[in-house]
Design a protein that fits this description.
The complex is a heterodimer of chains A (about 110) and B (about 120).
Chain A (H helix, E strand, L loop, with lengths): L8 E5 L4 E6 L9 E6 L6 E6 L4 E2 L4 E4 L5 E6 L8 E7 L14 E6 L1
Parallel strand pairs in A: 1-9
Antiparallel strand pairs in A: 2-7, 3-4, 3-8, 5-6, 6-7, 8-9
Chain B lengths: L4 E3 L2 E4 L5 E6 L6 E7 L6 E7 L2 E4 L8 E4 L6 E5 L8 E8 L9 E2 L3 E5 L1
Parallel strand pairs in B: 2-11
Antiparallel strand pairs in B: 1-3, 3-8, 4-5, 4-9, 5-6, 7-8, 9-10, 9-11
The chains are: A mainly beta (about 110), B mainly beta (about 120).
Chain lengths: ~110, ~120
């Protein structure tokens, strides 16, 4: 499995952009990067995914470096409801597209 | 569109008792997953079904855990007998089969406490 490394926690000010880094230096060329988040007492929620190009949807933007060894999830205007654990996952094509969750980054949005 | 449904939301049992969890995936999703999430950790895959067949159960403790998806839709996960270390949230997820990407949609989970 392609392993990912994320900081265990980070704080963010409400209304500011939150930039969440992820390292996935062993990812293969055809393996996607996925981001999920998990708000307290809920199941993980899909946010966004990407392969090579930067991606944007209504929730967030995903910036993937050209060498694909790292990516950054951007929450453009963080709100208190964005407080959650954010998981960066590199899929494992050799294991049937398996998604392996690590410890994630605990993001606390402060007023 | 209805999401992944799980029941019950909470369950408290004593060790050595048995327990079962139920999952109804999103309509049309051929792939179904059961995860175990221990407090403070990320979810860990227990078993993956493709329709009613098992694709991956390498992380399932088969001496006490079992799962089935008889008609390729609903699924049940059973623990018999339960141990204290089985206290966790059990999450069900589903995804389409014939897609390049593997976007999984999760239910709210069942929180199990074993006393």
């Amino acid at each position: 499995d392609a392993k990912t490394t994320q900081p265990p926690s980070m704080d963010c000010a409400e209304g500011r952009a939150a930039n969440l880094p992820c390292n996935h230096s062993t990812i293969s060329g055809n393996e996607y990067v996925y981001w999920y988040r998990q708000i307290h007492s809920q199941g993980p929620q899909y946010i966004i995914h990407g392969l090579k190009n930067n991606e944007t949807n209504e929730m967030a933007s995903l910036i993937i470096t050209e060498d694909r060894k790292s990516s950054t999830l951007i929450l453009p205007h963080a709100t208190l409801r964005d407080t959650a654990v954010y998981y960066c996952i590199a899929e494992a094509k050799a294991a049937g597209n398996k998604l392996t969750f690590g410890g994630g980054t605990r993001v606390l949005v402060k007023p | 569109e209805a999401g992944v449904a799980q029941s019950p939301r909470y369950k408290i049992i004593e060790k050595r008792q048995s327990v079962a969890f139920w999952c109804n995936p999103i309509s049309g999703h051929a792939t179904l997953y059961w995860y175990q999430q221990i407090l403070g950790q990320g979810p860990k895959l227990l078993i993956q079904f493709q329709n009613n067949g098992v694709v991956d159960d390498s992380q399932l403790p088969k001496d006490r855990f079992s799962a089935e998806r008889l008609k390729g839709v609903d699924s049940t996960l059973k623990i018999q007998p339960a141990k204290l270390e089985d206290s966790a949230v059990y999450l069900c997820a589903s995804s389409f089969r014939d897609r390049v990407e593997n976007i999984q949609y999760f239910g709210a989970g069942t929180r199990l406490s074993v006393l």
